[in-house]
Amino acid sequence: MLHPIESSATAAARRPAAQPDADDSPWHTSAACRSDEAGLFFAPSKEPTAARLSREEHAKRVCARCPVLLDCREHALAQPEPYGVWGGLTAAERRVVLTRRRRRDAEIRVPARIAG
Ligand code: SF4
User: Fold this and answer.
1) What range does the record give for the signal peptide (predicted)?
2) Measuring from each residue's beta carbon to the nearest atom of ligand 1, which residues come in under 6 Å?
3) What is the DSSP code (8-state) at residue 90?
4) CA-angle at 91, arms to 45 and 78, nearest 5°
């Protein structure tokens, strides 16, 4: 399997035309998953839960040795990418991170409004 960005037609289709093409970003060229062909990063249809958990753990092991893990993770959070393992996080884990960030940002804004 190629890097998720290269292999995901839906990800490319979701990318706004006015935005720079993420495939051109330098971090992408160093992805550890570029030559992986095991299909680890995206779920096949109707994948049983046990198989999904095993596949995701395997994908995360690839991510753990990836030199661009943080760039990939932030890209997936910023899009946000709704499917697949990106930057060592599953889609559900990314949703948790985004929820925590939104809460944190809201907490930061509240004192600013009180002070203002
Ligand atoms: S962090 Fe994982 S998904 Fe992202 S580029 Fe590296 S190996 Fe691929």
Assistant:
1) none
2) 3-4, 31-33, 41, 62-63, 66, 68-69, 72, 85-88
3) -
4) 130
